[in-house]
Specification:
The protein has 299 residues and is an all-alpha fold. The chain folds into 2 domains: 168 residues, Tetracycline Repressor, domain 2, CATH 1.10.357; 129 residues, Four Helix Bundle (Hemerythrin (Met), subunit A) (Up-down Bundle). 80% of the residues lie in helices and 0% in strands. The chain is built from 14 helices and no strands. The protein is globular and about 65 Å long.
Length: 299
């Protein structure tokens, strides 16, 4: 084999590795891992070995779900501008290959979490996988404007996974962490959906702005944010979290509420919708980090 041919083979191998990584959606997973690992430090004092195992298992499970999502959505990914360069619609990978990869990742994650943490942790991770793949992607995404509300619950499983890995059980605080993400998801995602209406309309996906209209979607963002804010401070009232977290939550909530209201009130709402979407990612990461810092300093 000539040197030029060998260089070509290496280049194709690198491209294949990049595509496999892209299937897992690493940028999305990074926030999921924050909301998995931080609750572990709220629940107790996990060993670094357990944290590493849950980190790897969580990445594999979420990555597997994302890969299967791309397999199911390959038809609409081909007509949406922001997704048509994904491995399947771009013709770089075959659908069966992507499906097998996703299932392999989820299977590996289930075994790893059950072996290194406990069966409850593995079951919760797998439940999140099935919820995202079948409830959201396969069913609700294409059939209801409530898709991101109900289906978005899949993104709220990571705190339960982290909590169960440390305690072997679930309690009221774990439920609150689940609900925080559940009610954060609609204003977070609808801020993006307002900007991507053309894409979703072309693909026939009934996102809220297309069905309810922009103004009603914005009003719904306000309502979900109004529920989210008190949920974030309730754990303080019964002693699960302390004043350090409370201070951070008050500041973050004030900024998030302000961002959502700017979307509603401004004539230049697209600019504010994009900034709200970006800030919502930081909001959730900092909120969960504040929980871990608060409990760490209290011990």
């Amino acid at each position: 084999m000539t040197e030029q041919a060998m260089a070509g083979e290496r280049s194709r191998a690198r491209e294949l590795v990049r595509d496999f990584v892209a299937l897992t959606k690493p940028r999305i997973i990074s926030l999921l891992l924050v909301t998995t690992i931080m609750p572990m430090y709220v629940a107790g004092s996990p060993s670094w070995q357990l944290v590493l195992a849950v980190f790897v298992g969580g990445y594999l499970m979420a990555g597997g779900a994302n890969a299967v999502n791309m397999y199911i959505d390959r038809d609409i990914d081909d007509v949406m501008a922001r997704t048509r360069l994904r491995p399947i619609p771009a013709g770089r990978m075959a659908p069966p290959q992507v499906l097998a990869f996703g299932v392999l990742l989820a299977t590996t994650a289930t075994f790893l979490l059950a072996r290194t943490a406990n069966v409850l942790t593995a079951a919760l991770g797998l439940a999140g996988f099935y919820f995202y793949v079948f409830i959201y992607t396969r069913w609700l995404k294409r059939s209801s404007p409530h898709n991101i509300v109900i289906g978005g619950a899949a993104g709220a499983f990571p705190p339960l996974v982290g909590w169960a890995a440390v305690t072997g059980s679930l309690d009221l605080t774990a439920a609150y962490l689940f609900l925080i993400i559940f009610y954060w998801t609609p204003p977070h995602f609808w801020a993006l959906a307002l900007l991507k209406q053309t894409d979703y309309g072309r693909a026939g996906v009934p996102m809220a702005p297309l069905v309810w209209g922009e103004k009603e979607t914005m009003r719904q963002m306000v309502w979900y944010t109004a529920i989210l804010v008190p949920l974030t401070v309730l754990p303080v009232l019964y002693g699960a979290l302390g004043v350090i977290y409370l201070g951070a939550a008050v500041l973050l909530n004030a900024a998030f509420v302000g961002a959502v209201l700017r979307v509603v009130r401004s004539a230049d709402w697209p600019k504010h919708a994009w900034s709200t979407y970006k800030f919502s990612l930081l909001y959730l990461a900092l909120l969960f980090t504040a929980m871990a810092v608060d409990r760490g300093l209290a011990r």
